[in-house]
Every structure is written in structure tokens, then in C-alpha cells.
Amino acid sequence: MTNAQTTVIPPRAAVKPTELTTHGHTRIDNYYWLNDRENPEVITYLKAENEYLETVLAPVKEFREKLFDEMKGRIKQQDESVPYKEGNYYYYTRFLEGGEYPVHCRKPGSLEAEEEIMLDVNEMAKPYSYYDIAGLEVSDNEELVAYGEDTVSRRMYTLRIKNLKTGEIYPDAIPDTEGGSYAWAADNQTLFYIRKDPKTLLGYQVYRHTLGTDPEQDVLLYEEKDNQFYMGLGRMKSKKYIAVVSDHNGVATEYRLLEATNPTGDFKVFLPREKGHEYDVQHLETTFYVRTNWKAPNFRLMEVKENKTDDRSAWKEVIPHRHHVYLEQLDAFKNHLVVGERKDGLIHLRVIDQQNKQDHYLEFADPAYVAGIGYNPDFNTNILRFGYSSLTTPSSTFDYNMDTKEKTLMKQQEVLGGFDTANYTSERFFVKSRDGAKIPVSLVYRKGTPLDGSAPLLQYAYGSYGYSIDPTFSSTRLSLLDRGFIFAIAHIRGGQEMGRKWYDNGKMLKKKNTFNDFVDVSEYLIQHKYTSADNLFAMGGSAGGLLMGAVVNQKPEIYRGVVASVPFVDIVTTMLDESIPLTTGEFEEWGNPKIKKYYDYMLSYSPYDNVKEKAYPNMLVMTGLHDSQVQYWEPAKWVAKLRTMKTDDNQLLLHTNLEAGHGGASGRFEALKEIALEYAFILNLVGIRE
Predict the structure, then answer these.
(1) What's residue 97's pLDDT?
(2) Which UniProt keyword terms apply here (predicted)?
(3) What is the Cα–Cα distance from 690 to 677, expressed in whole angstroms?
């Protein structure tokens, strides 16, 4: 399994040893110095890596452009979302021909009315190389919109306010806010928001702002003292309450509520935080519905009257706990409850009639799919909007009559270029891992693709934070499938596809299950002739990038190539440094290495610390200079160390987007260039260059 590189000499980062001692154990980090983005030598090195990548991939430069044009050509450029009605307006977004960004629009009273443009993000983005809008919150009088603006990709949003009647952007610009965590009070004058710490990038303070006043005079209402908690803020569906949520993933939740008609009042705790208790809340008339893991690892549904929330003896069970079903989603209507239940790795939408307590499930035909409750702002309706997609079915929006069970397709993503779902097939099966766990696997390929071991296959996974990777459609993926690739998703532990235990058994001191599951699925795919070691590729990003790093250390010989995007690979050093953004909130995911048992365990799998003198697969590593989640120096250090230690002549390439962060480039087309790079890298290795 060789792929000789060009004779161009790859960059070598300078070796500057730094001693790092913890628990009496000393590590030597030769590339620690790369963590200074203000150092010109660092930028020079990153640019040299980018230039090296372009040189190595020069033979497929035109192919990259072809892939980009091909993927762009499948996108309906002039497109529009399905409108939804809220208040007196219908809201929707549309894209213009050639436009990178959405135009947010509304129409008063009827879809036949004249369009009002709220925000044309294409125009707003023109002065910037990166631009992102987060959260549009319209005031109760429907005259103002609050939104967040990020021009750097650090997820530090400036809160801005626009008058929708006059078009004026108010001078009330508030920096360093949590994007999208905004809520108007009912008086149309008071706005609540979360301010983030510029060092840790954690939202930690709730403020009240009065329109037209100096933001310096804003009132601090609450400060989160525990930096392991993440915060969110928003107006509840009933519009009666503004909610502040403090959440420590997998550990505890705490809601604070304030009636929107009393903006100068005090937030009241719904139920005080308690270690091990997670909950979320929906309000309907005089009742709260509580999705809770209290004595219910897979969650159950309770209800409680408004004035009894902090008395759990007053909570009444609506849906009991079930060991084989994970209660994941909830929406409340006047006459119905809708819940999303995950069973055997798939979401099932269940409708409960509030009047007669009878229930039924929506039916879906695909073997692997994802369904989700959509945005339903109206309580007084029997129409449920939900989304659906599968590996062969483009993203679809449905309206469902919960009484008559009539399902209406409102819109399906239009895929240009002759796409026909009948040309593709998907499979779903379970793979037994080395410890007996049954790992769900979702597969898709073009009909006619040989299943004799000769086909190339790209295996993807994530496996962290309880985040489930569902089998969704991707129009960009067609560029692989149409060239003979099989695409597989391994639903490994660390996600939540199979319930809460699936997550618990892939975190902390059980993290290695995540890596073992991925490798065991890979070996199954080889043994059962879906592919071969010479044709198997792996891909993962962020925590999935850590997965890639652990996998290539454990079993490099079974992969032809690996793509690791914004990979979290220097886990020990990062988790020891609480000044790095987001570190403290991660202790319940990985463990705190200041405690020796966690230090030893993390060190035993940390990709950066476990690079050895051996052969590695072809590798493409992607990062962003302004990444707020995984700092750019982790992948940069990893590549630098791999260069000095690997014994093969396979490709090792690092691409740093010098203008973007964790999510990559902004804009719907610009981001395709990075996908085209990844696909060209993979396809080139199996000799496909057109």
C-alpha cells in the first residue's frame, strides 16, 4: 500500500523541545511553539504546508475544479425554503442565482403579499472574507429583528438590531455575544442576551439591554460561576417565558425562567441543578412538560403545573422510561404531543392525542433514515411540520395532519444534474465488536457497484458528546458514489444512536470503545467483501478527527487513506490548559487529566502522544487558523511530528484555511472547495482523476 510522493521536499517545522510535566511524568513536546498564531514563523510554516499540498496535488488541480463545478452544479442556485407562519407574517429564506448566502424574507398575512427583505446576507457579507449570521429574533410588535454577526469565525457574535419598517441598523452593537441566544421581552424595548468570555469563549453572563441605551449600561442579571456549564437563552414557544439554560453535558441542567411581560423582574429557577439530573422544558398554557432522566437513563416525559416546578413530588408521568427506547425530541400542541423516540438507532415520530390519549407512529420506508420534528411555532394547529431524509432521499419537508394522518410533501431538496434516487441503494446492518456490542452501520452505493471487495469505500464516524450521526442525504457525496465508491457510517459508541448507555460506554474511561468499534467495523467491511484494505478510506472531523488519529495509531495497515478535519489530537495538553477555550466544559467527556487516572488513560490513546516510528496511511489534515473549538496548532503539531517519525512514503498533507474557523469556509459554494479538495485527495489515491 504505497503512494510515492512527489520529489518536492515537505516542510519541516523547527524542533524546539518543551518539557511538560504532570503527576511526575515528563513529556517532551518538540512543536509546542506552534501555538502562537501571532508568531510570523508559525504563519510561514502553515503557508509552506499549504504550498506543499498544492504542489503534491498539482496533477489533480483541474480535477478539483471539476469536482467543485460538479457539486455546485447539483445545487439549485435560486431556491427557497418552505414558509412558516408566526404572528402576522410568513417567514422564509431564499437563495439568489450565484449567491453564497441566504436572503431572509417575510410576507404579511398571505403568501400572495408583497415580500419584505429582512436581511440580505449577500450584501452584508461583501466587506468580509468570512461572514456568518446567527439567530434572527423578531420583536412582538414585528417591527425589529435582533441577530448576531461573526466576521472572524471565532463564534463571537456582535448583537445587532434592525428596524424592519425603516431599514435602519441601530447603533446598539453589543460584541462578544452567544450567537442566536437572544430574546425580546413583550415590551419590544428590552432584549436579553448572553455575553461570552473572550478567553474561554464560554457564554457566562446574562444581560438585559434597553433599546437605545448605551450597552455599557446593560444590566447583569446572572453569571454562571461554574465554567463547566454551557449556557443558552431564548423565548419559549408559548411566548410567555424567557428561558436561560445552564447545561453540563451528561451531568446537570438548570433552567431559569422570567415572564416576558415582566422584563425587569428576576429569573426564577425551574428546578435547581443536581448532579446527574438532566432535563428540558416546554410550556403549554398552565403546564410544563419536562423531558427528564430523573430515575430514567433513557429519559421519560413528565408534566407539572406552573407553580409547582421545584417540587418533584408534584410531577406527573406522561411517558414512562423504557430501556430499549431513548426519548430524544418533544413538541407540544394544544391537542397533541409529538415525541421523537430513538429505537435501534433510528428516530420514530410518535403522535399522542391529548384528548383521548391514543397514539400512533408515522411510517417510513427506507432501511436507514433520519426524521425530525420541524419548527412549529403555532400551538393551535393539528398540522405537524417535520423533516425527513435518507441516504438515498434528499432532504424533505412534510406537513402532517395529526388527526387524519394525511402526509403532504411541501418541498424536497432539488438535486440538479439528472439525479434519480432509483439509481442508488442503501443497507443497514449490525457489526459485532470485539466486546460483543452490536454496532449499527448504514451504507449507500450506486446500483451496479461490485460487492466483491474491489470497490473503494469511505467510512465515516464521529462518536463523541452523545451526538448521533444519522444517515442523511448528501448531494456532494454523489461525486464519490457515481465514481464507484461505497459510503458507510459507523454508528459507534460515544454517540447516542442506541440510547444513553451507548454514549456512556464511549466516554471518559471507556473512550477506547469508540476507536475499537470503528476499527472492528472496518475489518468487517473488508472481511465481507464490501472493500479491501487497499481501497478503504476513513474520515472524521473534530472529535471525529481524534478518532482518526487513534485509529491510524491502532491499525494503520487497513486504510489506504484518511481525512482528518479540524482534529482534536493533542488531547492531554489541551485538557490540562484551562485557559484554552472550552476546555473546562469537556472534563465530563474526556476526564480531567489533573487527576492521575484520567491523565494516564488519555495519554494511552492521545493521537499526538502516540505517534510511533511506523508506516501510516496517506493522510490529509484540514484546519482553520481561527478555529474556536479545536485550535489550529493541534493538527499542525500532529503533522509536524508525523513527518519526522513515519517510515512510509505515503502522502501527508496539511491544509490550513487562514481565514476560517471550526466550520470551515462560509458561504454555500465556497465551502464546496474544501470538500472538492478532500474528494480529489481520496479519488486520486485509487487512480480516479476525472
Answers:
(1) 86
(2) Hydrolase, Protease, Serine protease
(3) 14
Catalytic hit among 246, 542, 565, 606: 542
Q: How far apart are CA 428 and CA 443, in angstroms?
A: 6
Q: How far does Cα 670 stand from its chain's mean position?
A: 19
| Nearest CA-CA partner of 629 in 661, 605, 593 | 661
Q: Please state which CATH class domain 278-413 belongs to.
A: mainly beta
Q: Residues 32, 69: contact at Cβ < 8 Å?
A: no
* Active-site residue, selected from the candidate residues 390, 609, 662, 666: 662
Tell me the three-class secondary structure of 82-141, residue by residue.
CCEEECCEEEEEEECCCCCCCEEEEEECCCCCCCEEEEEHHHHHCCCCCCEEEEEEECCC
Separation CA 121–CA 123 (nearest Å): 5
Note the Cα 463 to chain centre separation in Å.
Answer: 12
Residues 382-409 as b or e (16 or more Cβ within 10 Å = b): ebbbbbbbbbbbbbbbbbbebeeeeeee
| For range 22-51, the mean pLDDT | 96
Domain 18-72+418-686 has CATH 3.40.190.10: no
Give the pLDDT of residue 130. 87
Three-state DSSP class for 590? helix
**Which tens digit of pLDDT belongs to each residue from 496-519?**
999 999 999 999 999 999 999 999
Is 542 an active-site residue?
A: yes
The cell numbers describing 47, all together, are 503557508
Q: Assess whether pLDDT exceeds 70 at residue 6.
A: no
> Which DSSP symbol is given to 493?
B
How far from chain centre, in Å, is Cα 391? Answer: 18
**Residue 336 appears among annotated catalytic residues:** no
Q: Which of 626, 627, 628, 666 is catalytic?
A: 627
Q: Over the range 573-599, which residues count as b (16 or more CB within 10 Å of their CB) and which as e?
A: bbbbeeebbbbbbbbbbbbbbeeeebb
Question: Hey, where are the domains in the chain?
Answer: 18-72+418-686, 278-413
SS3 676: helix
